[in-house]
Design goal:
alpha+beta, 42% helix
Length: 252
């Protein structure tokens, strides 16, 4: 089972010194550095502290924007601080549930990863450009070479997103995405048995969709049913995009 969980923020801190010079510090970049450190150490306490820091930054941002759109203090004798937060973060078309279905339907375990009973998360970072296209995907923390490669390719080939916006204008924004890989480790890979859902309700609905909506033969639908038992046995139809599966996967 694969799940995609969004986790992104974007801050700019503007520091205007007494000398008149203005410096811009990317708070988002600072948070990412410490987040990666916590992830690589598997330090959950450090990760929680970072989450609290992010919430604190949001509270500062809200206060700053309420006082002034760009500059909180205007006295030249003091340091001037302005915080700009992205008003609308980038979004996968269809929302979070559609993003989950995309990964659920396309992130297929390799036989090697299953045999090694690998479960966990692949942390990947990428940029959403102003036109919604995806660029510069990068693995922040891998899990298994096969699953890392699958996650990288899925992110790289994602359809266009709704770009982030600031004051009504599209802007580039970085996004971090944990992709979760999970499956029933007690399942017999050589002869998988349908779950309670797929043995009755799920099978009935799938066959109806397969034969009626997609006009496939009974033989083809039987093949796809077996394919789903092998790869999506711990999910339901609501968690999958059947059209995506039929178009991108092969049933042999």
């Amino acid at each position: 089972m694969t799940k995609a969980l969004p986790n992104a923020s974007h801050f700019d801190l503007l520091l205007k010194m007494k000398t008149g010079r203005t410096y811009k510090v990317d708070l988002c970049a600072i948070v990412r550095v410490f987040t990666r450190y916590a992830l690589f150490r598997n330090d959950h306490i450090a990760f929680m502290k970072i989450q609290i820091a992010i919430i604190f930054l949001f509270s500062i941002t809200s206060s700053g924007i309420a006082q002034n759109d760009s500059i909180v203090k205007t006295d030249k004798e003091e340091m001037e601080i302005g915080i700009v937060v992205v008003e609308n973060m980038p979004e996968f078309i269809g929302g979070f549930e559609a993003l989950q279905r995309y990964f659920n339907s396309n992130a297929i375990y390799t036989e090697k990863a299953k045999n090694e009973k690998v479960t966990g998360k692949v942390f990947i970072s990428f940029w959403v450009e102003t036109d919604g296209s995806i660029s510069k995907p990068k693995i922040l923390k891998g899990l298994h070479p096969d699953l890392d490669s699958i996650s990288f390719d899925l992110v790289k080939n994602m359809p266009k997103w709704i770009p982030a916006k600031q004051r009504g204008k599209p802007i580039r924004c970085q996004f971090n995405l944990p992709v979760k890989f999970d499956f029933d480790q007690y399942q017999d890979f050589n002869n998988p048995k349908p779950s309670k859902y797929w043995s009755k309700k799920g099978k009935k609905k799938l066959m109806k969709i397969c034969t009626k909506e997609f006009q496939k033969s009974q033989h083809e639908c039987d093949c796809w049913y077996d394919f789903i038992i092998w790869n999506y046995n711990n999910m339901t139809l609501k968690e999958l995009d059947i059209k995506e599966i039929f178009e991108k996967q092969k049933c042999e």
